[in-house]
Write a structure and sequence with these properties.
Largest sheet: 3 strands, antiparallel
Strand order of the largest sheet: 3-2-5
Number of helices: 6
Amino acid sequence: MNVNNVKVPKMPGGGAASALLKLGAAGLGVYWFANNSYKVDGGHRAILFNRIIGVKDEVYPEGTHFMVPWLERPIIFDVRPRPHLVESTAWSRDRQMVKIGLRVVSRPMLDKLPTIYRRLGENYNEIVLRSIIDKSLEELLRHYNATELITKIEYVSWQLKDQVTAGALNFFFVLDDVSITTIAFGKDLTAGVEAKQVDAQGAEMTKFVFEKPSTVIRAQVE
């Protein structure tokens, strides 16, 4: 038998398979060019998450940057100073419940964004600020009674700012401002203060009522 004379039959659908391969390659190309870059707006920074190695250590500034589609994805951070209103409750030295409202302006350290994300995730502000403020307030208030908190409010505010700022640095945050906005005490202390105010007002009124006629009498005699 002459092998050279044997005809090899053609595989059906060869043209269709080639067309599908070309279409798939074209689709991959379109996907690549549509997803191989990302933009970082002003006041923001980005880090990259890689499916193989995890979060990369590089921090990307404002502008357009390239990445490997599917394998990498950007995580964008708003790094502008942001104000937060936080309320916390603790006990004073004389066991009075004290509720303090704080206004905190915070921003993350730019070069520490990969570490912040690894440790805290994207909602880092809510996690960190509440924890730091609660701990700092509890530590500070146990050194003061309720009266001292009222009479030394500026000094207490300065101490609280110092403690909260130091605590934030441990989590790679910078606090541009920490200020006490409100301070409230338990019902018993508030009622006692109001009673003293009413007594003081009543004493002033009594003094006025008793002193006024004597003034008139002296004027008439003169």
